[in-house]
Design brief:
Number of domains: 1
Number of strands: 0
Structural class: mainly alpha
Distance between the termini: 22 Å
Shape: elongated
Largest sheet: none
Strand content: under 5%
């Protein structure tokens, strides 16, 4: 569980796996544009790719929510 709550690892995953390949644009951005444009022609492989590259960002959003909603126990 410590792995899912480590800021450094989550940020590293977002910057590497989440954005790779970087050129000509981050892969996840291209997929999100494709989905926003109607996702015409997307196959199961493309949807898996969205989940694969988007998962680090889901972990980051989860971590932010956990940190913001955690009650101070002193």
């Amino acid at each position: 569980m410590k792995l899912l709550n480590d800021w450094r690892i989550i940020i590293l995953l977002c910057l590497t796996l989440g954005l790779a390949p970087f050129f000509p644009e981050p892969h996840i951005l291209g997929k999100l544009k494709w989905i926003a444009g109607g996702a015409n022609g997307m196959t199961l492989k493309d949807w898996f790719d969205v989940v694969f590259h988007g998962f680090p960002f889901i972990l980051l959003i989860r971590l932010i929510i956990v940190k913001l909603t955690r009650k101070n126990v002193a």
